[in-house]
Amino acid sequence: MKGAGSLSASQLFVPMSIPSPPKSWADIYIPLGWVHNIIPAVSADYRLDIKTYALCLLVGIIAAVIVTSRRLTARGGEPGVVLDIAIPAVVFGIIGARVYHVLTHYNDYFGPGKDPLTALYIWQGGIAIFGSLLGGALGVYIGCRYTGIRFWSFADALAPGLILAQALGRFGNYFNHELYGQPTTLPWGLQIESTNPAYPIGLPPGTLFHPTFLYEIIWNLLVLTVLLLIERHYRLRWGKLIALYFIFYGIGRVWFESIRIDPSVVFLGLRTNVWGAIVAIILGIAIFVVQSRRHPGIEPSVYRPGKEWSPSASEVDSEETYSDSDDDNDAAEKPEVPLKSGAATSGAGV
Domain total for the chain? Predict the structure, then answer.
């Protein structure tokens, strides 16, 4: 007979589980009622709503820009040139992420009783990493054409920062209580409220789920470490490091996607993101093989021929200084030339 204070095995697991944060943490409200005193048209109780998920993505983007800038500058790139490439990359990446999500969740936006305009409401959520990679690659290509940076050189410099950005961005899924996996009895199961719209029908309240966001964070940080270690020993260039990123990230994503339970289009028995991960692996292998054969040597510069940047072209490297007194000294040291007879003297100082 169990004592009054005894606990079952399942009850013992609950305190060890991962609690979801309060739903209120998904939004940060900044009161801007004071603007009403300046612009009466603005409501006196107006609040700016900032999504925590968006902040996680922003922190990831900033981290990726900083890491990529340091790496590219160390290889001879102009300081700050990463921003010229990051801007179109982020813009096209967001567009690509939304388009990919809408196409893979077509029935959520189109069909009887659906409003197609909601496909444009990106602030309501719904972006996809594989779409952002496709769109971002187009943005990087445009930025590289403008700056003269080699596309593959930038991609290799970006790889560690990109996987770090993805790890940081996944925290947004945690704050949104979304993209969790199948039910589990593991002690690190994720607590999800039964009122969640994505909560599986038929499961009892208190069911724990695989924290797929956490799995991907850990995996991405491991991939980051492996990429840096491989690069340190083999100095991979010509797109070979970004190729390894595709391979390693794709391998992990195949498993994460296989245990997720959120709605997704299924093709030939697999979720579309699983197919996306498989394509990433194949693409990474192809890039590594092709680039290894085409460019077995050392990368001469991160710039395309004729587009090289040199520090001497933008700043003067000299210990000599110039001042207005130099003109006076030059004039004093210059010997006077005797004027010929009849020569005019009024223009001597011209």
Answer: 1
